Amino acid sequence: MDPGTLHGNKMEFSGGKRRKLRLADDQRNACYPHSLQFYLQPPSGNVSLTEFETLAIDRVKLLKTVENLGVSYMKGTEQYQSKLEAELRKLKFSYRESLEDEYEPRRKDHISHFILRLAYCQSEDLRRWFIQQEMDLLRFRFSILPKDKIQSFLKDSHLQFEAISDEEKALREQDIVASSPSLGGAPSGLESVYKIPFAEALDLFRGRKVYLENGFAYVPHKDIVAIVLNEFRTKLSKALALTARSLPAVQSDERLQPLLNHLSHSYTGQDYSTQGNAGKISLDQIDSLSTKCFPPCMRQLHKALRENHHLRHGGRMQYGLFLKGIGLTLEQALQFWKQEFIRGKMDPDKFDKGYSYNIRHSYGKEGKRTDYTPYSCMKIILTNTPGQGDYHGCPFRHSDPELLRQKLQAYKIPPAGISQILDLVKGTHYQVACQKFFEMTHNVDDCGFSLSHPNQFFFESQRILSGGKDIKKDSVQPETPQPKPSVQRSKDPSSTLDSLSSALDMDLEELEELLQ
Ligand code: SF4
């Protein structure tokens, strides 16, 4: 795509203002002819770092909603469709073909998809998650694409699926209906039928769900979405593998690397830093809070600490920052950890020398003086996998299913609830499984939030247990030193431009402004 097409308003046209605008509109429409895309070409326009970040975060939010809706509702049902449409509208992403002036939402859709490819190509887990949510999003958009636009969308997506003529259809109608279970045996009102190379309909063929003739599959409209999604999955999967190979170049950029890492581990809500909560709990409340209000990851750490009077580094970091986020002051934290470690027969001097520095450090009182924020679910789920003797991590992600079953039994989850949670875990929907756990332990049908942070679990629990009265105080602190989805500023703007040239070009002026 010519960069100019992304900036029609900057292009020079003759013939007066009105003509300029019309041409600019034509250019804009030509960029994105449809409300959905196959993302065949990366964007090449200018994007400022700030916009880069905003676009990326909005898409993470969108994909998380797609995941949540996918496990809460049956895909394709009215509720699912209307909730997803509402989210797309709220986040200003494209969704309906017929809407006027869809250029900005479509551009946002295009660029944000490619940014997330950079963030989500980094591991098998991330790739799988990203592909699944993108496929569900495409399925939804395809399902509301008007019938008369399908052929041109397929053509623009390089999918050579031609709808056959009415005569050809009439000739084969009986065979097509008999071989396509999705039609339910009803010959009347057979909609479009697409003739596609047999190799591209292998899934339907394997399931004996399509009529074949002379190397072609005759796929009814109802089934074409499966073929489109299959193609999309194959292309996206290859593209992610290729992107992963070019990652070192992007990662060498010191501003983009933290942003991309954060995005893939990200949650997009508040960071639950301690401000406003400090001193709100006392040490003797922790035992009872741990069973009533802590998410399973923290409950397991607390139990292990009480039993073993020790936690290894990963556990101390995960649990210590969580406690800090719910309101433990530095003095309380030092007292809490020291008391427990001394119970384990640790010499107080050894504690002071070996451990109190780390606690002070995590409160921003030592070293770089970074005021560390509690870990989000994605960070816990995706980084620092626990080993033998570790208690950190997320039980939904890191516990063996049988062990998880036992833990859930011990937490008094009823058998039907355990099966439901284990099914979600099997489908790798760990946070949704935790949300179910929350609903069951708090006796609510719909918790009404999308879980992304252990401290969010805690505060929501407190809110419910205190009768709906929100007891958090000024807990929204979007600005924190680390880790947060902000681009770190560099003294050398040119390095970003070099490393990103294959993905997205920065607007140099805006970049320099940002770096001043
Ligand atoms: S989903 Fe999040 S809050 Fe729940 S157990 Fe896992 S890491 Fe903790």
Structure report:
The protein has helices at residues 3-6, 16-31, 49-72, 78-90, 103-120, 124-143, 147-156, 166-179, 202-206, 221-245, 247-251, 256-264, 286-292, 296-308, 313-326, 330-343, 348-354, 356-362, 377-382, 395-398, 401-410, 415-426, 430-442, 454-465, 493-500, 508-515; strands spanning 46-47, 162-163, 193-197, 211-213, 216-220, 505-506. The chain is mostly helical. α3 packs antiparallel against α4 and α3 packs across α5. The two termini are 30 Å apart. The relative contact order is 0.11. The structure holds iron/sulfur cluster (SF4).
Largest sheet entry: 4 strands, antiparallel
Class from helix and strand fractions:
mainly alpha
Small-molecule binders here are: iron/sulfur cluster
Distance between the amino and carboxyl termini: 30 Å
**Share of helical residues:** 55-70%
Overall number of strands: 6
What's the mean pLDDT score? 80
How would you concisely characterize the structure shown here?
Helices cover 58% and strands 4% of the residues. The strands form 2 sheets. It has a 4-stranded antiparallel β-sheet. A hairpin with a 2-residue loop joins strand 4 and strand 5.
Give structural attributes.
single chain; 516 residues; mainly alpha; 4-stranded antiparallel sheet; two-stranded parallel sheet; 58% helix; 4% strand; disordered C terminus; binds iron/sulfur cluster
Furnish the topology, listing elements before pairings.
Layout: H1 3-6, H2 16-31, E1 46-47, H3 49-72, H4 78-90, H5 103-120, H6 124-143, H7 147-156, E2 162-163, H8 166-179, E3 193-197, H9 202-206, E4 211-213, E5 216-220, H10 221-245, H11 247-251, H12 256-264, H13 286-292, H14 296-308, H15 313-326, H16 330-343, H17 348-354, H18 356-362, H19 377-382, H20 395-398, H21 401-410, H22 415-426, H23 430-442, H24 454-465, H25 493-500, E6 505-506, H26 508-515
Parallel strand pairs: 1-6
Antiparallel strand pairs: 2-3, 3-5, 4-5
This protein binds iron/sulfur cluster (SF4).
